[in-house]
Amino acid sequence: MNKIPLINPEIEKYAEEFSDSNKTILNQIKFDTSTKLRYSDMLSGNQVSGLLSLLIKISNAVNIAEIGVFTGFSTLMMAESLPDHGKLYCLEMNKKYLDIALPNLRQSASYNKIHILEGNAREKINELPNNLDLFFLDADKDYYATYYEVILSKLKSGGIIIADNVFWHGGVLDAKKDRKSSAIHEFNELVFSDKRVESVMLTVRDGISIIRKK
């Protein structure tokens, strides 16, 4: 798959700068990600995490979950956006990512809201509580459609799913899609045709779908 430039790089940089949270721990997460991993572009960044933060606050979410902690940037932004009694359930199986994320997350006053379920998300997702307010789907792209069905069953009526990377670097447009591009495209088709939800797909970074359960 050949990645295609989805947004002018200068505009992307401009948007990131004007979405900057400028918090010490978040800056440390960015630094640790860029120095310890070769694929720091997986970090959700200011735009995506900022959008998550606002959606949590606007929807008055209390109990939320995410698949894919990575190095903890979006995790911290989401946790800090919750009320004091809120809970964020995080599914992550990559120990290397958690070893980078946890030292920084533990420095936050919001760490007590974070509950990490380490292991394969396809197994751990069933341990999540019901009636979740919001769910961030951002890992294990091959199984987005599988997770979607379980997430809907865990989500309260009016709850929100935010699915990241729904363009997969433009791979969803390829005539001959690779495995992940096909999986993401099938997920997009599933959501679009699902009468149980209403959704909008946004051209933010690598594509974000915001899905509301009716």
Task: Please characterize this protein's 3D structure.
40% of the residues lie in helices and 21% in strands. It is built from eight helices and seven strands; from the N terminus they run H-H-H-E-H-E-H-E-H-E-H-E-H-E-E. The longest helix is centred in the C-terminal third of the chain and has 15 residues, at 179-193. The chain is globular. The mean pLDDT is 94.
- Please summarize the sheet with the most strands: 7 strands, mixed
In helices, the fraction of residues equals 40-55%
- Rg measurement, Å: 16 Å
CATH homologous group name: Vaccinia Virus protein VP39
Number of helices: 8
pLDDT < 50 runs, ≥5 residues = none
Average pLDDT level: 94
Q: Which architecture name does CATH use?
A: 3-Layer(aba) Sandwich
Which term fits the overall shape?
globular
Our measurement of the CA-to-CA distance between the termini, rounded to an integer number of angstroms, reads: 36 Å
The percent range for strand residues is: 15-25%
Strand order of the largest sheet: 3-2-1-4-5-7-6
Structural category is alpha/beta
List the domain count as a whole number: 1
| Name of the top-level CATH class | Alpha Beta
Number of strands: 7
Question: Could you say what the CATH topology is called?
Answer: Rossmann fold
Question: Helices and strands, in N-to-C order?
Answer: HHHEHEHEHEHEHEE
